[in-house]
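Quick one: sequence plus adenosine-5'-triphosphate SMILES, need structure tokens.
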Amino acid sequence: MSYTQKQVTDALHLVKFPGSDKDIMALDMVRNIKIEGKKIGFDLVFQKSDDPQIITLKKLCVSAILKFVDKEAEIKGNIKVKAVHIVDEPGVLPNVKNIIAIASGKGGVGKSTVATNLAVALANAGAKVGLIDADIFGPSIPKMFGSESARPSLIKIDDKDRIEPHEKFGVKMLSIGFFVDPAQATVWRGPMASNALKQLIEEGNWGDLDFVLIDLPPGTSDIHLTLVQTVPVTGAIIVSTPQEVALADAIKAISMFEGAGVNVPVLGMVENMAWFTPAELPENKYYIFGKDGCKKLAEEKGIDLLGQIPIVQSIREGGDNGIPAAVNTDTVTGMAFADLASKLMSVVDKRNADKDPTKRVEITR
Ligand SMILES: Nc1ncnc2c1ncn2[C@@H]1O[C@H](COP(=O)(O)OP(=O)(O)OP(=O)(O)O)[C@@H](O)[C@H]1O
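Reply:
Sure thing.
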């Protein structure tokens, strides 16, 4: 019999950081949990390699595992302490003004739909925009742009091979879906997926851009860590439906971005599938996934709500037929995405005025 991840994370949720009311899971200090039979191990990530709480916290973790998982669990010696280093050097993408991560906790809430339409709406507003499909295991950007057959070419710049991003509706984009059969990528192991993302970022000929949007996979994964270790992410947008199960996962995504070792400000939330209005009853709103769940969560967390996007047939059709709804600027949905783009531009301006630029992080010891 082996223990479950949940048993371990539940136990570690009970370990509070000394002097704080937050636990080490909420602070995103636990990474790489490995369980083999009775053996449990994980990385414990601190902001500084000489944090005075290292010894105490290691002991608290050992006690929590022995008490709440199993007194026979082999945990001693299996907690590796790691430290976050802020890397103070211009990273890759030096000519990109803002790198925005689009994330969700739960899958299927419309993150790629929002990323696609937001990218098009930003381009319509005159911004120079790039879009990177970081959902390596399930890339959907090629389909949403009607570009499944695009094959970006390699060009030589300063004797180095560079990938020329595909461009459509004013958006420069790269996706692993342009290079491998998506069915192949779904079985890749973590390091292969992380390397693929690094290549899309580092080897793309991105040039000067106002925004690069990164469409992340759902949940929290190695891909998220690869991203913050590869580029300084200006901020994150969290997409969720108003449904409770989706909101619970959205909270985890918010904690991950704001937690130790990542430190990326959350710029706002987007409530997708906020309501449904049938064409024949335009005055009626049906709150299929619940009412204002995301709005309330954003208020609670002190985060801006950037927009509420209803369930609209043309949004789904746009995703399927490769012409994003935001392309049609004179429709109600086109205007909703234009409004979302303008809100994003103003929160990014505010973030850049109020806060220091984000720095890339490295986790070492
Ligand atoms: N507001 C909306 N109205 C109608 N359909 C929508 C809306 N938002 C998303 N959809 C549809 O819901 C489905 C899931 O959306 P999408 O692929 O964007 O979700 P996701 O969160 O990126 O999923 P994944 O878990 O694959 O990352 C798609 O078919 C999309 O067209």
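The CA atoms of residues 4 and 267 lie 34 Å apart. The first strand starts at residue 30 and ends at 36.
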